[in-house]
Amino acid sequence: MRGKWWQEAVLYEIYPRSFYDSNGDGIGDIQGIIKKLDYLKALGVTAIWVCPFYKSPMDDNGYDVSDFYSLAEEYGTLEDLKMLIEELHKREMRLIIDLILNHTSDEHPWFIESRKNEDNPYRDYYIWRKGNNGKPPTNWESFFGGSVWEYDETTDYYYMHVFSKKMPDLNWRNPKMREDMYQMIKWWLELGVDGFRVDAVAHLSRNWDFPNYKAPEGKEYVACYHEYSNRPEVHDYIKEMNERTMNHYPEVVTIGEAGGASLEDTLKYCAYDRNEFHMLIQFDHCWLDTDPDSAPYVPSKWTWKDLDLRDLKRSFKKYQVGLYGKAWNTLYWSNHDQPRVLSHYGTEGPDWEVCGKMLATVLYMQGGTPIIYQGEEIGMMNVKFDNLEDYRDVEIFTLYKETVGKGLATHEEMMERIHHRSRDNARTPMQWSDEPYAGFSTTEPWIKVNPNYTKINVDEQLNREDSLLNYYKRLFKIRQNTPTLIYGDFKLYLEDDENIVLYTRSDGNEEYLVLCNFFDQHVKVTLPNDIEYQASELIISNIREINLQVEMNLQPYEALVYKLFK
Ligand code: GLC
Ligand code: CA
Predict the structure, then answer these.
(1) pLDDT digits (tens, 9 = 90+) for 141-163
(2) Is the C-beta atom of 424 inside 6 A of ligand 1?
(3) For helices 233-244 and 175-191, what crossing angle results, to 10°?
(4) Phi, psi dihedrals of residue 417, rounded to the nearest 5°
(5) Is residue 34 within 8 Å of 81, Cβ to Cβ?
(6) Of the bound ligands, which one is closest to the alpha carbon of residue 441?
């Protein structure tokens, strides 16, 4: 399959709370996005994905929706949103919104009804179970730490929530609930959105036998995610949803988010012939540097070790080769749930900018649709707040309670984990300039700005030819003008090399070679002799312009892309 707009798109993910505040209340908003559309257009972005802006008590910054049909006041009105669509379309750009099907807020009218009594017509919109001798129905662990069950004394039942307890899971077995969801989706389609990023879709189904697990030493709950992730019924729900909604809008794109999806699962979710999603956001490459055994008392994402580059390359290859010709990849380094990529897989040191360019090259020269996360294009980094009170993410606080609160870890240890891994790393305000509050707002923002904004900001980089931002622009221009880089196949070389990423993209006659040094050491590399070419032309590089040779001596974080002539 070729030539679909979403295959040739450059997506940019916006976390609206932190993007741009247009009215000086310290919170980003829809009008703020509109004000920055020209910036995005100039970057080469063709579509934006905006994280939830629905009415919400903001327990999980809007992923806890209390009304799917209106916007949170701080973000604006439906009129603002229509204006955003109009302004995007004027610029030949598109809008993808977040669609949250797995749960609602506990303040959603459905849940308020549901918890009232066992006979309420909304009771079965959610998942209620009796306790197990004074304990929760199962000992399954929530993604945010603690139990997936919350006791509700009104009826003496527990309800299930794989995320925060203010986000009760919907019961997708209930056809009435599904019907209400489809009505809602149709409403947004009619309003003119161009696509959906379908949140947490992997969890729509669970094992209704609710087996208990033997908990490891010192642990109360078990991270048995497979009991409520990527189960077969999820695909039936997606197919039904499409029949009722998306299929009637052939230009609309859907991007599923499926934590824990293997290559096999990914093909189920988005192979061209399956009629489910157009693309899938899977996480295989995101947490290759965890070390679960080092701290069994925290979910594994809170642990780490050095990245083994071979694992990352294996992951790239798995999806690049595994999906080729069968399904379409997404390409992303990070999002609003991940640490900043420079801090995670790159460096915050003096070479940060060269490294940022290398990371962009390694990833975005692959096959699939790029999804840039806001601020990545200027090299935004993790933040290290000294005080727990400066953090905002609900996940941090549930984790802290489950560890420090239960005497399993010290405050100092958990602060270090938070500095490395918390989602707030990605959620500090966008750094527009070196003015107060990074030019994000005229007042103290809802979460503190990363103090490095005086050095790392959009203004500074717009005005500097060799900036990371300008490199992003050049890289995406090349990509967009080179069908081989969009549709070509992917071949990985030097798989066992611990420092170098080397691959080719080729499409019939044309071939490109991408050569990157992932770390901060000088490295010698010998081109494998099955890469055949007569001549080569350098397309883009991040340090110097050098010819391709059999023996190359690469500088730290050096990135080079060549066109090969046979
Ligand atoms: C997804 C979102 C994340 C949210 C969760 C629950 O993983 O990306 O931010 O907390 O779903 O909606
Ligand atoms: Ca605002």
Answers:
(1) 999 989 999 999 999 999 999 99
(2) no
(3) 50
(4) -60, -40
(5) no
(6) 2
CA distance 340 to 376: 8
CA 81–ligand 1 middle distance (angstroms): 22
92 in active site: no
Tokens, residue 199: 């949140």
| Phi, psi at 126, each rounded to 5° | -125, -175
For 502, the enclosing helix (H) or strand (E) is strand 500-507
Q: Token match 């910036």: residue?
A: 39
Ligand 1 pocket mutation, candidates 66, 199, 228, 422, criterion most atoms within 8 A of CB? 199
Q: Report yes or no: 330 and 342 within 8 Å, Cβ to Cβ.
A: no
Ligand 2 centre from 23 Cα, in Å?
Answer: 5
Structure confidence at residue 15 as a pLDDT band (50, 70, 90): very high
What is the pLDDT at residue 509? Answer: 85
Q: Are strands 94-100 and 47-50 parallel, antiparallel or unpaired?
A: parallel
* Ligand 1 centroid to residue 119 C-alpha, Å: 31
Contact 62, 164 (CB under 8 A): no
Overall size of the chain counted in residues: 566
In angstroms, the CA 447 to CA 81 distance is 24
pLDDT over 80 at 218, yes or no:
no
Model confidence over 367-386: pLDDT tens digits? Answer: 999 999 999 999 999 999 99
Residue 240 tokens, joined: 């039904």
Active site residue 199: yes
Site of tokens 């309670």: 401
Q: Give the pair of three-digit tokens for residue 70.
A: 């209106």
- Those residues whose C-beta lies under 8 Å from the C-beta of residue 361, and which sit 6 or more positions away, are 475, 514, 516, 540, 542, 559, 561
Is the CB of residue 190 less than 8 Å from the CB of residue 69?
no
Catalytic annotation, pick one of 60, 257, 276, 377: 257
Distance CA 133, CA 6 (A): 52
* 37-58 residue pLDDT tens: 999 999 999 999 999 999 999 9
Q: Which of 290, 287, 285 is nearest to 304 (CA)?
A: 290
53, 60, 371: residue to mutate for ligand 1 pocket, most atoms within 8 A of CB: 60
